[in-house]
Amino acid sequence: MSIHCAWCERDIHDRTHIPYCCARCEKKATKALAAINAPQSALQRETRLIRGCLVTLVAVIAVTFSLRILAGSPPPPDDIVITPSAPSSVAIQNSEPYKAGQIARRHWNLWLGGQHGERRKGAIYWLNAVTGQHTKHCDGTAEFALGCFDAHRHISRSESLLATDPEFIAGWNTP
C-alpha cells in the first residue's frame, strides 16, 4: 500500500521515509510562502525592471530582424548609374559598339517606361546588378521579382557588353 505525501502528493512506498518527505516538503513550502509575502527590496525591484526591459528589447530586435528577413532585399535606387570608363571622342561615337549601346539604351528606356511600381524597381535593381553595384539576386515581393526576371530576359544580350566593352558603355550612357 502506498501513501501520499501531504505536501507534494508523491507516492511513498517505504513507510520509514514518510516523515522525512513531509518535513522536507513543508520546509520548501514555508520558504516559498515567505519569499512571496516578503516586501521586495529596492535592488530586487530594479533588477526585475532591468530584466523586463532587456527581455522587451530582445523581443523587439528579434521581431525587427525577422521582418527584415521576410521582406527580402532592400529596394533599389530609382536612378540608373553606370560609370563611363573613358570620355567619348568623335572616333568612339562613330564606332559600331557605341551606336549599339545607344540603340540598346533606347530599347531599354522604352521597355522600362512600360514598367510600374515594384516591377519597375525590380528592373532597375537588375540593371544595377548587371553593372556590378550589388549581387544578382531577385529577392523581394512577387512583383519585384517578376520585374527583375523580366529585366534579366530583356537585357541579357547586352549584359556582357555592359560588363566589358567601354565603347558600348559610352553609347549606353549617351542614348
Describe the structure.
The protein is an all-alpha fold and 175 residues long. It has a two-stranded antiparallel ribbon with strand order 1-2. A hairpin with a 6-residue loop joins β1 and β2. α6 crosses α7. The mean pLDDT is 78.
| Strand residues, percent | under 5%
Q: Unreliable runs, pLDDT <50, ≥5 residues?
A: none
How would you sum up the major sheet?
Answer: 2 strands, antiparallel
Give the integer mean of the pLDDT values: 78
Rg to the nearest angstrom? 35 Å
Strands side by side in the biggest sheet: 1-2
- The secondary structure category is mainly alpha
Brief account:
The protein is 67% helix and 2% strand.
Features:
175 residues; mainly alpha; two-stranded antiparallel sheet; 7 helices; 2 strands; rod-shaped
Present the secondary structure layout:
Layout: E1 3-4, E2 11-12, H1 18-37, H2 42-71, H3 90-93, H4 96-113, H5 117-130, H6 142-164, H7 166-173
Antiparallel strand pairs: 1-2
